[in-house]
C-alpha cells in the first residue's frame, strides 16, 4: 500500500458541562488537528462549546460537530430506541447549535462525527445510517458549504454519505484495540485501551502501512484519512503528543482534512 504523506489527527472534546470539568482540551489542542466538539446532548453546554471553538481558532484546529444521543447520564454510550426521523432531527439540531456558535466566533464548521452509541448505531442500523447522513447533508445545505462526515472506512455510514455526495473522511483509532473482525474491542475487555507508546505505534502502522494488528495477532487492512485519540482516555494529551511525534518523525505530515468546495 502506498505510504501516506499526510493524515489528520482528531479528538473528541468540549465534554465538560456546567460545574463539571472533563478532559485535557487545552493540552490536546497542542497536538491534534481536528476537534470534535460535543453539542450538549451527551456532554458539553453552550458556554463550553463557545470556549472550545475559541481555543480551536487560537491553535488553528479544524472545528467539527460531535452530536450524540440525549443521554447525559450515560455519556451517550448507551443505545436508545429512537425513531429514525427523530435521529435525523436531533443530529441536525446539534450541528446547527455548534454552527451558530462557530459563526459567532468567526470559525467555519468543517466536519461532523457522531458520538458513542450513535456512531455505532450508525454503522449497524440502516435506518439510523440514512438518518445521520441526511442530517449532515441538510446541515451542509443550510451552511452553504460542504461538511465532511467522519466514518469507519468500510461501514454503512460511509456508503450513505457517499451516496449523498458528502466528503467521507475515513477514520481509524490510535488508542483502542481492534477486534479480529475490524470492530473496536469493548472497553471492558482487558487491554482494549492502549497506552501512549502502543497507541503511537498503532497510529504509525495505520498511516504508513494501512494495517493494524488486532487482538489475537490478526493483521487487518485499514485505510484512514484521520486517526482519533479519545479525549476521555487516561493520559489522552500524552497519547496525542506521542502519536503526533512518531508520525512526524516518520515524515508523515499531520494536518486537518477539509471538504472539497
Based on the model shown, name its key terms.
single chain, 261 residues, alpha/beta, 7-stranded parallel beta barrel, two-stranded antiparallel sheet, 8 helices, 10 strands, 38% helix, globular
Could you characterize what this model shows?
This protein is an alpha/beta fold and 261 residues long. The mean pLDDT is 93. 51% of the residues are buried. The chain contains eight helices and ten strands.
Give the topology.
Blueprint lengths: L5 E8 L11 H4 L5 E5 L7 H14 L2 E5 L17 H21 L4 E4 L3 H6 L4 H18 L4 E4 L4 H8 L4 E6 L22 H14 L1 E3 L5 E3 L4 E4 L6 H14 L3 E2 L7
Parallel strand pairs: 1-2, 1-9, 1-10, 2-3, 3-4, 4-5, 5-6, 6-9
Antiparallel strand pairs: 7-8
Compact description:
By secondary structure, the chain is of the alpha/beta class. It is 38% helix and 17% strand. It is globular.
Number of helices: 8
| Strands side by side in the biggest sheet | 1-2-3-4-5-6-9
What is the global morphology? globular
Strand content: 15-25%
Ends apart, CA distance between termini: 28 Å
Please compute the radius of gyration using only Cα atoms.
Answer: 17 Å
How many β-strand runs? 10
**Percent in helix:** 25-40%
Q: Kindly state the mean pLDDT as a whole number? A: 93
Q: Ranges with pLDDT <50 over ≥5 residues?
A: none
Largest sheet: 7 strands, parallel, barrel
Tell me the series of helices and strands, N- to C-terminal. EHEHEHEHHEHEHEEEHE
Structural class: alpha/beta
Amino acid at each position: 500500500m502506498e505510504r501516506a504523506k499526510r493524515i489528520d489527527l482528531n479528538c473528541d472534546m468540549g465534554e465538560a458541562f456546567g460545574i463539571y470539568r472533563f478532559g485535557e482540551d487545552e493540552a490536546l489542542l497542542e497536538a491534534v488537528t481536528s476537534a470534535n466538539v460535543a453539542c450538549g446532548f451527551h456532554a458539553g453546554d453552550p458556554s463550553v462549546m463557545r470556549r472550545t471553538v475559541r481555543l480551536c481558532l487560537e491553535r488553528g484546529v479544524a472545528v467539527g460537530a460531535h452530536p450524540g444521543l440525549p443521554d447525559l447520564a450515560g455519556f451517550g454510550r448507551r443505545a436508545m430506541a429512537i425513531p429514525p426521523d427523530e435521529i435525523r432531527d436531533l443530529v441536525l439540531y446539534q450541528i446547527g447549535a455548534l454552527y451558530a456558535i462557530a459563526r459567532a466566533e468567526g470559525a467555519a464548521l468543517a466536519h461532523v462525527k457522531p458520538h458513542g452509541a450513535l456512531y455505532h448505531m450508525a454503522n449497524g442500523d440502516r435506518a439510523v445510517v440514512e438518518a445521520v447522513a441526511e442530517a449532515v447533508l441538510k446541515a451542509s445545505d443550510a451552511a452553504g458549504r460542504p461538511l465532511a462526515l467522519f466514518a469507519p472506512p468500510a461501514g454503512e455510514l460511509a456508503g450513505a454519505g457517499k451516496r449523498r455526495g458528502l466528503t467521507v473522511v475515513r477514520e481509524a483509532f490510535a488508542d483502542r484495540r481492534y477486534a479480529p473482525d475490524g470492530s473496536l474491542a469493548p472497553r471492558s475487555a482487558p487491554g482494549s485501551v492502549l497506552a501512549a507508546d502502543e497507541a503511537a505505534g498503532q497510529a504509525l502502522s495505520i498511516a504508513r502501512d494501512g494495517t493494524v494488528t488486532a487482538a489475537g495477532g490478526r493483521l487487518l487492512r485499514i485505510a484512514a484519512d484521520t486517526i482519533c485519540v479519545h479525549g476521555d482516555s487516561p493520559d489522552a494529551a500524552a497519547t496525542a503528543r506521542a502519536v503526533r511525534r512518531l508520525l512526524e518523525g516518520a515524515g508523515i505530515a499531520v494536518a486537518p482534512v477539509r471538504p472539497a468546495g
